[in-house]
Write a structure and sequence with these properties.
- By secondary structure, the chain is of the alpha/beta class.
- It has a single domain, classed as Rhodanese-like domain (Oxidized Rhodanese, domain 1, 3-Layer(aba) Sandwich), CATH 3.40.250.
- It contains eight helices and five strands; from the N terminus they run αβαβαβααβαβαα.
- Strands 1-5-4-2-3 form a five-stranded parallel β-sheet.
- The longest helix is centred in the middle third of the chain and has 11 residues, at 92-102.
Length: 160
């Protein structure tokens, strides 16, 4: 049996990873760059990179195929576009990047260190109102844990 970290380490050998400052440069240089955020909706709604596309990891594969109801046209038609996959810490994005490669995406990479690293370098993050957030506030949200506002402390039960 392999652990999550072992699976990620194995997958990372076969993909390209970019540091947050490299992704920031790619955003400035390539206006067609697609930033695919594979976190959950509750994570994305708290903070995200401007113009990133939310595609939760659970629907990533079906979002790339037009015959599924989860299909996202930009992804269905994006196999030749430059794509950077992001998540909170850079682990889920490794697996998402690997899957996109398997599915025929030609220019896809993962952002190493995820949005934690992005925020550490004080690169801008935004809320759903498109307002830029203070990096210290984002750091508090990151330290509070995955969807802490929406989840019971045992992280198994959604609070209504």
């Amino acid at each position: 049996m392999k652990t999550f970290k072992e699976i990620v380490a194995e997958a990372s050998k076969n993909i390209t990873e970019l540091m947050p400052w490299d992704v920031d440069e790619r955003i400035k240089e390539n206006k067609d760059l697609m930033i695919v955020d594979i976190r959950e909706e509750c994570e994305f709604s708290r903070f995200h990179i401007r113009h990133s596309m939310l595609v939760p990891r659970g629907i990533l594969e079906s979002a790339c195929e037009e015959e599924y109801e989860d299909a996202i046209p930009d992804l269905v038609n994006g196999r030749d576009k430059e794509i950077v996959v992001i998540c909170r810490s850079g682990l889920r994005s490794v697996l998402g990047t690997q899957m996109l490669q398997i599915m025929g995406f030609n220019n896809v990479s993962s952002m190493k260190t995820g949005l934690r690293g992005w925020n550490d370098y004080e690169l801008p993050l935004y809320d759903l109102k498109h307002e830029e957030l203070d990096p210290d506030d984002v750091d508090e949200m990151l330290n509070a844990g995955f969807c802490s506002t929406f989840m019971h402390p045992d992280r198994r039960t959604i609070i209504d």
